[in-house]
Amino acid sequence: MKVGKMKTFLLAVTAMIFTTAAIAQSGYQIRPGDTLSIEVLEDSTLNRSALVLPDGTISFPFAGTVRAAGLTADQVDAAITSGIAGNFASEPNVFVTVASLNPARATATGTGAATVSIYMMGEIATPGEKKLRRGITLIQALAETGGFTAFAATKRIVLRRTDTRTGQQSVSTINYKAIADGAAIGGDIVLRSGDVIIVPERRLFE
C-alpha cells in the first residue's frame, strides 16, 4: 500500500475509533466510583477530575453537590452548566467526559485485607479512589496522597462514613491547618473502607 493511501487509511480508522468511543460514552450511565473529567472553557481554574461518590454525587465549585450516578455525561454537563451559569455573563461551555470507570473489585474483602479503599474528592491534588494500608489515619492519608489544590479549605475537611449494617452516615470535620501549624492531633481517626474524605473549596475571605 502506498504511503499516501496508508495515511488516509490510518486517519479513517482513527476517526472511526473516536466516533465509536463518543457514541459509547454518550449513552453510558455513570456509576459510583467512576471518575469524571470536567472542563469549563471560560475559566480553566475550574477544570478538574471529580470522583462519583458512593451516594452517586460529585461536588463542583459554584454548583455544589450534583447528581451523577444513573445519568450520562451530557446530562451531568447540563446540570453543572445550570449550576454555575449565574457566575458568568453568558452561558458557560462545560465539557464532561468519563475519564475512568469504577475498577472491578473482589466480591469478598475478607477481614485480613492489607488495604482499605478510601474515596478522596474536592480540592485534592489527586482525587479518586485510594488503596491505602489498613490502620492508616485520616491525617496520614492526607499527607500521603499529594496534598491540596490552591483552593482548599484546610480548616473544614470533612470525613463521611457510612455504617454498612444500618446505612446511617456520620460526618466529622477536621481542622488540618491547625494540626499542620502545630496543634495536637488528639483522636486522629483511623480510616475504614468506604470512607469519603472531602476537601471543600475555600471561601472568599477564608
What would you note in describing this structure?
The protein has 206 residues and is of the alpha+beta class. Helix content is 24%, strand content 27%. It has four helices and ten strands; from the N terminus they run αββββαβββαββαβ. A five-stranded mixed β-sheet has the order 7-6-10-8-9, with no helix packed on it. The longest helix is centred in the first third of the chain and has 25 residues, at 3-27. Residues 1-26 and 104-112 have low confidence and may be disordered.
Brief sketch in words of this structure:
By secondary structure, this protein is α+β, with helices and mostly antiparallel strands. 24% of the residues lie in helices and 27% in strands.
Give the count of helical stretches. Answer: 4
Shape from CA axes? globular
N to C succession of SSEs:
HEEEEHEEEHEEHE
**Helix content range:** 10-25%
Q: Which parts are unreliable, with pLDDT below 50 for 5 consecutive residues or more? A: 1-26, 104-112
Radius of gyration: 20 Å
Helix-strand category: alpha+beta
Give the SSE map:
Layout: H1 3-27, E1 35-40, E2 48-51, E3 57-60, E4 64-67, H2 73-84, E5 94-100, E6 115-122, E7 128-133, H3 138-144, E8 157-162, E9 169-174, H4 176-180, E10 196-199
Parallel strand pairs: 6-10
Antiparallel strand pairs: 1-2, 1-5, 3-4, 6-7, 8-9, 8-10
What features would you highlight for this structure?
alpha+beta, 5-stranded mixed beta sheet, 10 strands, globular, disordered N terminus
